[in-house]
Amino acid sequence: MKRLASSLALLTALSLASAPAHAETIVVGLGLSHSVADLATYDAGTGYSSAYDHSELGGRFEYWNFMKENYALNFNFNAGFFSETQKPGAAAPGGPEGKYSQSSWSVRLGGDRVWKPLPNVKYFIGPGVEYWVGKAKFEDLGGAVGTYETKNIVRTSLHGHCGAMLAMGDNWGISGQLGHRIGLASYKEAGSKTSWMPSSIDGAFLVYFNLGGK
After folding, report:
1. Tell me: the pLDDT tens digits for 8-53?
2. What separation in angstroms does the CA of 126 have from each of 14, 84, 143, 178?
3. What is the per-residue DSSP string for 132-158?
4. Where are the alpha helices (H) located in the chain, listed in sequence order?
5. From CA 208, how far away is CA 214, in angstroms rounded?
6. Euclidean distance between CA atoms 140 and 88, whole angstroms
7. Distance CA 181, CA 123 (A)
8. d(CA 175, CA 17)
9. What is the domain partition of the chain in residue ranges?
């Protein structure tokens, strides 16, 4: 997995170094994303680990390098999160307040075909490869006293997305997109191991800025 992450970083650096420059070469975006976290827990009583999934929100940084008018190198970084707080009711007076939380990060590298039907509108679609790492934490959850934090769960996926950019000014605009992934995930703890093939949908809304080029 470390080799995959290193390869993605190297490929990005090489692509940026070799890309021809022209007007509207570099576009960067910042915004919000939603996705699905693929997680797992270990049961000390049975000695087995089991997988589950949960929704997550996040922040996204996205980068496009328009190597040609109708083709762009695409990279994004996401930081995901979710939290839940449980307060005891009348049937559990004096019980502990429980909390569940999860966090993740991911990177994606791909290539987009771009179509510009109007001067202020671009559509893009393309495949990519995604690398995702996440974990979860349980604190006094469901009235049980104690804290349990999982190890890191790793997921690698083939990921395709499509979306659009709408220019709102000379050098900025808004962008929305939807994506779908099919991947492989794995988890190890206390000698146990579980592997599975998750599939899910994600999306993002961004404000982008055209940094131009010459």
Report:
1. 444 444 444 444 444 458 999 999 999 999 999 999 999 999 999 9
2. 20, 35, 46, 11
3. EEEEEEEESGGG--SEEE---EEEEEE
4. 2-18
5. 19
6. 11
7. 20
8. 26
9. 2-13+26-85+96-210
Tokens coding 66:
């328009």
- The pairs formed by 53-56 with CB atoms below 8 angstroms and a separation of 24 or more are 53/198, 53/200, 54/82, 54/102, 54/136, 55/82, 56/80, 56/81, 56/82, 56/102, 56/104, 56/134
Structure tokens at 12: 């990005």
Q: What is the mean pLDDT of residues 106-120?
A: 96
pLDDT at 24: 58
The tokens describing 137, both together, are 């934490």
Q: Are 71 and 126 in contact (CB under 8 A)?
A: no
Cα angle 167, 169, 174 (rounded to 5 degrees) comes to 40
Residue 139, amino acid: E
Structural fold of domain 2-13+26-85+96-210: Porin (2.40.160)
Q: Which residues of 139-177 are buried (b: 16+ CB within 10 A; e: fewer)?
A: bbbeeeeeeeebeebbbbbebebebebebeeeeebebeb
- Distance between CA atoms of residues 200 and 174, nearest Å: 24
Tens of pLDDT, residue by residue over 126-184, are: 999 999 999 999 999 877 779 999 999 999 999 999 999 999 999 999 999 999 999 99
The structure tokens listed for 57 are 């929100």
